[in-house]
Amino acid sequence: MPDRVKIVVPGDNPHQIQGSPRLAQLEPYGDVTVYTDRPTSPEQQLERAQGATILLNSRGAVRWPGEVLRQLPTLKFITVFGIGTDSIDLVTAKELGITVSNIPGKTAPVVAEHAFGLMMATAKRVVFQTQELREGRWGTRIDNIYLNGKTLGVIGAGPIGARMAALGKAIGMHVIAWTFNPTPERAANMGVEFVSLDDLLQRSDVVSLHLPATDQSRGIIGTRELGLMKPGSLLINTGRGALVDEAALLAALDSGHLAGAGLDVFAQEPLPPDAPILSRKQVVLTPHNADSTPEGLDFLNEGAVENAIAFLEGKPQSVVNR
């Protein structure tokens, strides 16, 4: 590896690390180029990354399939700015000797707070009632939902799910959880009961998703699972859009089986302006920005830079494709 390497941020839009003082930490190691717009074609994406040893992939919408990675012979390391690595072909990266790291846990309190906010806004019909007032109508009735004493089902027991469980308990909710890898120790640390997925869906008044998109988790909530949920329950998703069958979710909302949904993530991002979910009055939507507070952005920038430096110093951390 050369003494000074080429480090590229290939598409920093919306703004993530551009202008961050964290970039100064990389100056002793290499030359950093930050592109403040997204590449508009695969050719432009390749041109930007050509010759790079390190990619700081600040936006998951900039994707790295195997056929692109194979055209980048100098590339040795990619870090994402978060937990999810579904923007990268991990199998091909491993085959090519490209190390991929993520940032687990740093923004867990920020994302969990956003999920909690979506839950509260959905339960209290905030978006619908605000729109009614803006259009000059007073008192149009959709019942709010009282959450104290209700059951919150947390799917995914990582740092974000654990924090969401704590927030739910803080307002008097009973919390149960499901994870791919339950242990008594994890249950004790979270202070929750681990149950089967079907049991969680049947018992919960609110189901909150905190999983990455993997082969195991994609489509984990479909027609069958939504049908198991309680009539009048809520679905919250700050994990990944691929976790939920959106057509099935629309059907469950339209039938009245679900009372509402709070979504930060979608199968297609950016969300198209004609997306059917936009017309549903019982939903609360945010544009995949659960960690987009000044604190959250800095936590992620810090983590990405630390990952790059750790790799350059021969001590890679948070590697997802060993």
Describe the structure.
The chain is α/β, with parallel strands linked by helices and 322 residues long. It folds into two domains: 5-106 and 294-312, NAD(P)-binding Rossmann-like Domain (Rossmann fold), CATH 3.40.50.720; 108-285, Rossmann fold, CATH 3.40.50.720. The chain has eleven helices and twelve strands. It has a seven-stranded parallel β-sheet, sandwiched between helices. The protein has a five-stranded parallel β-sheet with strand order 2-1-3-4-5. Helix 10 (246-254) links the parallel strand 10 (233-237) and strand 11. Helix 4 (108-123) packs across helix 6 (159-170).
In short:
The protein is an alpha/beta fold. It has 11 helices and 12 strands. It has 2 domains: 121 residues, Rossmann fold; 178 residues, Rossmann fold, CATH 3.40.50.
